[in-house]
Amino acid sequence: MALNILYRGPAERGQHWQTLFAQHLPQVKWHNWPEVDDNSAIDMLVCWIPPRDYQQDYPNLKVLFSVGAGVDQLNIATVPKELQVVRMLDPGIQQGMTEFVQMSVLNIHRDTLAYVNMNQRGQWQQLPGVSTAKRQIGIMGLGNLGQAAALGLQNLGFSVHGWSKRPKVLPDMQCFHGNDQLKVFLQQCDIVVCLLPLTDETRGILNQHTLACLPKGASVINVGRGEHIVEHDLLNLLNQQHLRYAVLDVFAKEPLQADHPFWQHPQIWVTPHIAAITQNDSAGLALLANVQRYINKDTMVGVVDLNAGY
Ligand code: NAP
User: Fold this and answer.
1) Pocket of ligand 1 contains residue 143 by CB under 6 Å
2) Mind listing the domains of the chain with CATH numbers?
3) 276 lines ligand 1 (CB under 6 A)
4) Residues 220, 242: contact at Cβ < 8 Å?
């Protein structure tokens, strides 16, 4: 019996992926939401946010694919154990994130925001600099994106260390793990990059207490999720000059409202959740390869641990 995939998302991407599947896996029937004759035939749903009652509407659903790297938008706690949730491991997302983290770290390292502010005032002032090797970068989250970003920073000459849930051994970097080692990890960061998934354990992880563990003059880059940071605490520590800069790509409420204090803050650089965007070409191939694995009864890549939430 044919495998039926229902796609819900931007039409252009749907058409692109439909063509790809027609070329490489013609035995798969591709449907673009909401065009489905028989809901009970749908085996796989590909989306960012699923339709509200998807579990009732598609009673024979076996796989829920996220078109993004994260799955916090899916309300994992309500997903039945027999439904596989698979996140997008797109080389294009990984490349985009590595570039964004490199750019952000370099901007902080070279005081770009301070110089932009000085430009606007017509102020000529040279700030002291340090070499990349003396700049300690800490990556929170050593998964698919965190490890790639770490390597990208090492290639620029930065000293990189990382923190994850479970112990890890990675080339040329000190790896910390677990809540017990969070403080000592943070104490060594001139710049900390948050690349954690959003779960009950990581929500609000960057708060007054943890941010204060960073050395004075440290900076924060958040490319995980907005809710990782307690916004008010971040503002306090920036205003007290304990923290120097924050580069923020993700926010508790998106889009960031026009009167939010982050926009005008001289130490904050805001970007509109663009650090890494799913690329239709490479993500389509990644999805295709995973569906092929499913057909072959192989383990798909990016299967989410429903208990851990990522
Ligand atoms: P991943 O491969 O699942 O890696 C997650 C990492 O976080 C793992 O190293 C994991 O530790 C660690 N972790 C999870 N919970 C932890 C905890 N309680 N304490 C310490 N470490 C913990 O995820 P990924 O693909 O790298 O993506 C990370 C996140 O990036 C996504 O979830 C998404 O929110 C965000 N993202 C943002 C953008 C953007 O444009 N801004 C784009 C894509 C993704 P273990 O290795 O020990 O399991």
Assistant:
1) yes
2) 3-90+278-295 (3.40.50.720), 93-270 (3.40.50.720)
3) yes
4) no
Instruction: For ligand 1, pick from 89, 100, 164 the residue to mutate: most ligand atoms within 8 Å of CB.
Output: 164
Cis bond leading into 91, ω under 30°?
no
Strands 44-47, 28-32: pairing is unpaired
- 28, β-bridge pairs: 3
The conformation of residue 76, written as its DSSP 8-state character, comes to: G
98 close to 139: Cβ distance less than 8 angstroms: no
CA of 139 to the centre of ligand 1 (A): 10
164 C-alpha to ligand 1 centroid (Å): 9
Encode the chain (310 residues) as per-residue pLDDT tens digits: 799 999 999 999 999 999 999 999 999 999 999 999 999 999 999 999 999 999 999 999 999 999 999 999 999 999 999 999 999 999 999 999 999 999 999 999 999 999 999 999 999 999 999 999 999 999 999 999 999 999 999 999 999 999 999 999 999 999 999 999 999 999 999 999 999 999 999 999 999 999 999 999 999 999 999 999 999 999 999 999 999 999 999 999 999 999 999 999 999 999 999 999 999 999 999 999 999 999 999 999 999 999 999 9
CA atoms of 244 and 237, how far apart (whole Å):
9
How many A from CA of 229 to the centre of ligand 1? 15
302 C-beta closer than 6 A to ligand 1: no
Ligand 1 atom nearest 179 alpha carbon:
19
Name which residue sits closest to atom 2 of ligand 1, judged by CA: 143
**CB of residue 250 inside a 6 A radius of ligand 1:** yes
- Write the DSSP string, 80-93: -TTSEEE----HHH
